[in-house]
Amino acid sequence: MNQDQGNSCPMPGACQDGQGSLPSCAGLSVPYVPFQPKGAKKYTQTEALANGTLFPGLNLPFHLKMEGSAVPASPLTQLQALEFVVMELGAYLDTHPDDNEAFALFQDYAAAAREAKAAYETQYGPLTLCSAANGQSFRWLEEPWPWNAQQ
Amino acid sequence: MFVYEKKLQYPVKISTPNPKLAAFIISQYGGPDGELGASMRYLSQRYAMPYAEAKGLLTDIGTEELGHMEMVAAIVHQLTRNLTADQIKDTPFAPYFVDHTTGIYPTAASGAPWSANGIQSTGDVIADLTEDLAADGACVKGQRDVSVRRIPSHTPPWA
Asked: Interface pTM (ipTM) of the complex?
């Protein structure tokens, strides 16, 4: 299709030029992966969960399919979205531990995820064996187990 | 150690069974580029990793892959739940059904059961990371080919 017609970025939201960095004096015939720069553009948590990445720059148009799936809004998906961003920022910080801005965002999302998780568990039951001790009775065995979700 | 969280990373709710699709998707569970292999690959390679950044990344991504494994298994389970042998007969899922009925078994779509032959852990950082790039890329391509939602990939920020 029209993957490359002089426009380096035909897909909306796809990776733009300049979103990674290469060695300034790179040897020839050596493959490089651009290192993700600080301050890269980020999705909201719902967009991140739907696209499988927090970073538009990493949402590559494999087979020209860019669209994420629609995530139904529910207390569980809101928690999943927050925890997904925490995990994505954690993986980013693994390779960028000195990015203070990203760390501050990581702290914010982690706090929001902790709060959402506590609220979810109060209403729907424990998500971990340990938190099953917080209830009035042992609710760990209650359905649905995650793979048994009904449509 | 690992602590189980009683939820999936991403919701899986499939109302219409589809044994034909299940016959493809099972490879993402137990095939050579599947999630079981991915988690074993990263969680095994980290012991030889000398750099803190990559120790952390292999641990965190290897752990996330365990969650992907659970999602893919849930997809196959929901694609095949409540099916009868008659509904599976004459579909590509039939050979799997002969051995496993609708139980979840880590196997490739080809029928080869999951094997560590599909992963590598050499003790050499560059060799291992190069294999990770190849494996994660194959995984993404496979998912797009069968029109499954993209499972988070980790290829670009590596190396």
From this structure: 0.85
Residues A49 and A17 in one domain: no
Which of B2, B4, B8, B10 is the best residue to mutate to test the A interface, defined by the most A CB atoms within 10 Å of its own CB?
B10
Cα nearest neighbour of A125 on chain B:
B6
Tell me how far apart the alpha carbons of residues B145 and A17 are, in angstroms, rounded to a whole number: 26
**How far is residue B12 from each of residues A126, B3, B15, B68, B87, measured CA to CA in Å?**
19, 21, 10, 11, 22
Cβ <8 Å between B7 and A88: no
For the record, the structure tokens of A140 come out as 């760990």
The pTM assigned to this predicted structure is 0.84
A70/A113 same-domain check: yes
Domain range holding A54? Answer: 45-132
Q: Report the domain count for chain A.
A: 2
CB-based contact, B127 to chain A, within 8 Å: no
pLDDT digits (tens, 9 = 90+) for A39-57: 888 999 999 998 889 998 8
B window 37-66, beta carbon within 8 A of A: 53-54, 56-57, 60-61, 64
The closest alpha carbon to B10, from A28, A83, A144, belongs to: A83
Given this model, what pLDDT does residue B154 score? 56
Q: Is the CB of residue B71 less than 8 Å from the CB of residue B12?
A: yes
For A82-109, the pLDDT digits (tens) are 999 999 999 999 999 999 999 999 999 9
Half-sphere exposure at residue A119, Cβ-oriented, CA atoms within 13 angstroms = 11
CB contact under 8 A, B11 and A72: yes
Whether A148 maps to a domain, the answer reads no
B109-142: pLDDT as tens digits: 999 999 999 999 999 999 999 899 888 766 555 4
Residue A102 sits in the same domain as residue A123: yes
Does a structural domain hold residue A20? yes
CB-nearest to A94 from B10, B15, B60 is: B60
Q: Give yes or no: residues A56 and A87 share one domain.
A: yes
